[in-house]
Amino acid sequence: MNEEIHNAYEVIKEGGIILYPTDTVWGIGCDATNPEAVAKIFALKKRAETQSMIVLMNGDRMLHNVFKEIPEVAWQIMDCAEKPTTLILDDPRNVAPNLIAPDKSLGIRIVKEPFCFKLLERMKKPLVSTSANISGQSTPKSFKEISPEIVKGVDYVVNLHRDKIAGNPSAIIKLTNDLQVKVIRK
What we know:
nine-stranded mixed beta sheet
């Protein structure tokens, strides 16, 4: 695993995009602070830049670096969540502008999955995570279901967990600074 972390980090550091296993489904990712790398993912997925992507983080420090205000309920949800949960929070900073949704929000997920966690530790920056499919197509449940166009379109494919069948995509909950809560996906 350490070699895969090293290889992925070297590609990301140079502005490349990777295909990698997450705590939910296979994802396409890059340095969340690099707008050119983010644009490559939008192009590969044939996705409109108005359709936002999420970022993975590995803990409180990264979360505080991106959000000045974090609603108290966000911590409660993260503590109580029994499955991977993406929170959409208001007013992100220190990320690529093309990651921020038109309503000035950003989806984040704190990961514990060892590969992602250790890669984030090495990067010291958030990692973009979006499902490994062309926009509008179904989300692949395993590596072998990922279209050749996606596999060929990334700069590096992580060689881990290729036989694993993915779980479901994460739950998504939007929390606004004025304390509104909206469940987008259970």
